[in-house]
Amino acid sequence: MSEHYLGNPNLFKAHTKKEYTEQQIKEIAKCMEDPIYFIKSYIKIVNIDEGLIPFNMYGFQERMVDTFHNNRFSICKLPRQSGKSTTIIAYLLHQVIFNDNINVAILANKSSTARDLLGRLQLAYENLPDWLQQGVLNWNKGSLELENGSKILAAATSSSAIRGGSFNIIFLDEFAFIPANISEQFFSSVYPTISSGKKSKVMIVSTPHGMNMYYKLWNDAQHKRNDYVPVEVHWSEVPGRDDKWKEETIRNTSEAQFATEFECEFVGSVDTLINPSKIRILSHNNPIISSAGLDMYEKPEKGKDYVVTVDVARGTVKDYSAFIVFDVSKMPYRIVAKFRDNEIKPLLFPHTIEKIAKQYNNAYVCVEVNDIGHQVADALQFELEYTNLLMCMMKGRAGQILGGGFSKRGTQLGVRMTKQVKRIGCQNLKTLIESDKLIINDFNMIEELSTFVRRGTSWQAEEGSNDDLVMCLVIFSWLSNQRYFKEMTDQDVRARLYEEQANAIEQDMAPFGFVDDGLEDNSFQDDSGERWTPVTVRKGDIL
Q1: Catalytic: 174?
Q2: 15 to each of 27, 99, 128, 143, 148, how far by Cα in Å?
Q3: Residue 343 class from Cβ within 10 Å (0-12 exposed, 13-18 middle, 19+ buried)?
Q4: Cis peptide bond upstream of 54, omega within 30
Q5: Which of 212, 222, 301, 365 is the most buried (most CB within 10 A)?
Q6: What span, in angstroms and rounded, lies between the C-alpha atoms of 84 and 64?
Q7: Please, are residues 459 and 453 in contact by the beta-carbon 8 Å criterion?
Q8: Where exactly are the structural domains of the chain?
Q9: Alpha-carbon distance 336 to 430, whole Å?
Q10: What is the C-alpha separation between 29 and 22, in angstroms, rounded?
């Protein structure tokens, strides 16, 4: 009977009797103790030019392996074609050979990519000396099992990829390229699996690709807001890459592509509503409370004014029902809480809105009433009898105007997201964020802003991304530009922005002097072409 697995001369079947020399036993012990020694001494890889060659590790690759081996959670940011996948599979091979009964998951953005990684690991295994190998129980394109009880599974990253299993090591390859909804679902389902063992490892390796879950994990790791140990590799650490190589690469690609793939910058989509340079410097905070879709950043404070804007999901799994709570007591406006959930039923959503709005001093609530949004607004008004629900009036060519009640014809609950409302809201949102009048401190909002791009003559999320929170921001930005907003909050965004802009111009022009013609005109024109004149309103005056 053959000792080889399925006739493969490079693989031994399980339960094949072996005899070891004293030197081999010493080598096994040394390899078990030192994964870097094992890799440098016994792992072979396929080189495009030279074929099968020993894996001569670079310095940063040794640093990666050392980080993996001595930490439970690791995250690596590396440039393209730096040998990151080869390094990780070599380490995984060490783990399954020298540890009994461990389960390893190789997860990538595509199942074919994960199987390719497993195939490279299997090739390295086949080229090990006989005395270093474990007997094989199962060996195919999607998994392998050794006689020491250790197993490796290769699959696409998804919320169901490893659900129900118990894994000791999870390797996430090119995690930045996983769609946002999948990455979020994955972490919500996989973390119970990870936390089930005290020695479980998670290793994330990727090149940046926008501002997504990978960006959040990396950013939090750098600021020590999570348990991941970051490893960053610069393109110049890869032998053969110098300034001349950089110039040639940029000449054959582009500056933007080089910045993303080799400088490893977290660059969002092109042609975003908010200037990319502004998006890159936005910083998120960890919420003080996070539960059931709600993230709270600041607790309600007595005497403060709050506004809630609501975007209702269209009923698909990819869409989120969302709302944002704004502190509008003073500028800059602050985001104090947000809710985001893609499973909540429209019947339950109004109760959630009411509960949070009441906590924030009976906040003013503005609901986007397109599609099924009107059902949510109706429930707030007529079933729950929430008193501070904002309404709009139709004013002909002027479109929708924020108002306070049903005293006039054409009044509706909430606001309809028309082309005009969206255009004005987007313009104002850009102004508020880029002039630091609205502080964005939530990761999901930053993520959505990084993929909120021009589509024809409008703005929307790029394919595969979401904009539910951005639309809440757009509603608020439109709302803050309304005259009735002053009555609610004693604020006037137009006047304040105009005054600050005028002051800035005055300071810039001061060296040249001014000519005072004795005529004072503080009026200004908004983006829609309407001219406004600020007025002084005393307490008790009726508008």
Answers
A1: yes
A2: 21, 17, 18, 19, 10
A3: exposed
A4: no
A5: 365
A6: 9
A7: yes
A8: 23-267, 280-489, 493-532
A9: 20
A10: 11
pTM: 0.72
Query: Residue 225 is encoded by which pair of tokens?
Result: 């807001």
SS3 110: coil
- Other residues' Cβ atoms within 10 Å of the Cβ of residue 496: 13
In this prediction, what percent of the chain has a pLDDT beyond 90? 56
Instruction: Tell me the CATH class for 280-489.
Output: alpha beta
Phi then psi for residue 445, to 5 deg, are -70, -45
Give 465-478 pLDDT, tens digit per residue: 889 999 999 999 99
DSSP class of residue 133 equals: P
Active-site choice (22, 27, 147, 174): 174
User: CA geometry: angle at 365 spanning 361 and 370, to 5°?
Assistant: 165
Q: How many residues does the chain have?
A: 543
Shortest CA distance to 404 belongs to which of 474, 519, 485? 485
Task: Give the other-Cβ count within 10 Å of 136's Cβ.
Answer: 21
Residue 365 belongs to what H/E stretch? strand 364-367
Local confidence band at 427 (pLDDT 50, 70, 90 cut-offs): very high
CA distance 245 to 251: 10
Opening angle at CA 56, ends 51 and 62, nearest 5 = 140
Domain 23-267 has CATH 1.10.10.350: no
Tokens linked to 94: 């060490």
Identify the bridge partners of residue 532 per DSSP, sorted by sequence position.
Answer: 524
Which is nearest to 173 in space by CA: 161, 188, 191?
161
Q: How far apart are CA 173 and CA 106, in angstroms?
A: 8
| Tally of CA atoms within 13 A in the half-sphere of 144 that contains its CB | 27
Q: Per-residue pLDDT tens for 238-262?
A: 999 999 999 999 999 988 889 889 9
421 band by pLDDT with thresholds 50, 70 and 90: very high
Beta-bridged to residue 368, according to DSSP, are 415
User: CA 294, CA 301: separation in Å to the nearest integer?
Assistant: 18
CB atoms within 10 A of CB 180: 20
